[in-house]
Amino acid sequence: MNKQQSNQVRIELKQQFPLTIKRIGINGEGVGFFKRKIVFVPGALPGEEVVVEVTKVHPKFTEARVKKIRKASPQRTKAPCPVYEQCGGCQLQHLEYQGQLDAKRDILIQSLERHTKLNLDELDIRPTIGMDNPWHYRNKSQFQVGTQDGKAIAGLYSMNSNKLIDIDECIVQHPLTNKVTTEIIRIINDFKIPVYDEKQKRQIIKTIVTRVGFETGQVQVVLVTTEKKVPQKDLLVQEISKRLPEVVSIVQNINPKKTSLIFGDQTINLQGKDSIKERLDEFTYELSARAFFQLNPIQTSKLYGEAKKAAALTGNEKVVDAYCGVGTIGLWLADGAKEIRGMDVIKEGIDDAKKNAKASRVNHADYYVGSAEDLMPKWKQEGWRPDVVVVDPPRVGCDRKFLDTIKEVKPKRFVYVSCNPSTLAKDIEYLKREYRVEYLQPVDMFPQTAHVEVVAKLTLK
Ligand SMILES: C[S@@+](CC[C@H](N)C(=O)[O-])C[C@H]1O[C@@H](n2cnc3c(N)ncnc32)[C@H](O)[C@@H]1O
């Protein structure tokens, strides 16, 4: 069948057909082709032969669900989480761990195929670095608060509906985050503290965020609320301190907006410190509520180790730690660098970064509040040029203005730590005239999910 004919193939809603699954797609779904049209099937695995039913038809792709598995993958396994199907927070629990690691490398390959013109046969794309025990790895939970049968609950909104799934034992979370959230909900119910304002028809306590220091055992609780005033706030704080001695910091963050962003701009200390401490190898980090910190501390050491390897410092380099958060990567690289400059848009993160450098006796690192796209051109204009640049941007990738400055400043090495292979691929493509990709190293920061983290080493041509 030629291409024109294949485009004329009509796929109808509820239509059923057999499908062989070829790959895992970027969102963790199985990917197959029906008469050359791409079909996404959540829950299906590579190598499987399934019968699917079409659930949605789009101009360029089709969504379908598994009706029957005719031939199952030998890597299919039973997902241990009781709310796996409803929750949607994890996408790959039904795939054995080695299969997940392979799938993540393949997702990276798919992104490079899609967004670059690189010859993939010539690229060194390494096997994904996994975890020994890929459970209970998350140091932070962000559970939404709601009500069910008149009682407060905390959990995640289902991927496919607006329903809040009550979660009291999430198996990818550190047990302390589960314990703390469950106990706070118990306190709210014990004292009948309202989480929803019936009159105003709005949520009062929106989200309970807990972050634990794996090495220190310290826990911070952030109560995200729509306004400053919360009924029985003092009682709630007092009970949390009484029942949960591991909680060393309780803060309130006010976010009146209805957005997907958890935090608003205002944070108030309610009890204890403003931050908690965490240790990774020999470094101690101070973490404020809004400051970014990697979610999987065990893999973070491996990730930063890879960043350090790729930076290949000799002691003489001026290094930029762009999108630095609390300064973690820069500190990791500090003993090999002559000078380090880091920047981040979150002021609390930069405040923490300065404290962290001081605590680690690193005197040759400076941290600045501001965006990478504003500060890099400014430094260039002032005549300050780095030899090595490490970036770790959010999912949207690097700003073009920042990458344009990199092309002009021409650091010898550009180390790209990425949490989104699509934007990584686009940015690599944008830099390809100036930079050669030496290798790409995926690291599994989020077992059981389809998220892929990669360290890419680029060198100046
Ligand atoms: C993925 S985190 C990386 C943080 C840090 N490197 C680490 O490993 O913990 C991305 C960071 O980029 C910051 N950020 C977002 N947009 C930025 C921008 N345009 N310029 C600088 N930093 C930015 C965020 O505040 C966040 O701390």
> What's the structural domain tally?
3
**What fraction strand?**
25-35%
In which order are the strands of the major sheet placed? Answer: 8-7-6-11-12-13-14
Q: Supply Rg.
A: 24 Å
Ligand list: S-adenosylmethionine
Shape: globular
CATH class of the largest domain reads Alpha Beta
CATH topology category name of the largest domain = Rossmann fold
Termini gap: 44 Å
CATH architecture descriptor text of the largest domain: 3-Layer(aba) Sandwich
Helix run count: 11
Mean pLDDT: 95
Commentary on this structure:
There is one protein chain. This protein is α+β, with helices and mostly antiparallel strands. It is built from eleven helices and 23 strands. The longest helix has 19 residues, at 97-115. The protein is globular. The relative contact order is 0.10. Bound molecules: S-adenosylmethionine. S-adenosylmethionine is lined by residues 292-294, 323-325, 328-329, 343-346, 349, 371-373, 392-394, 399, 419.
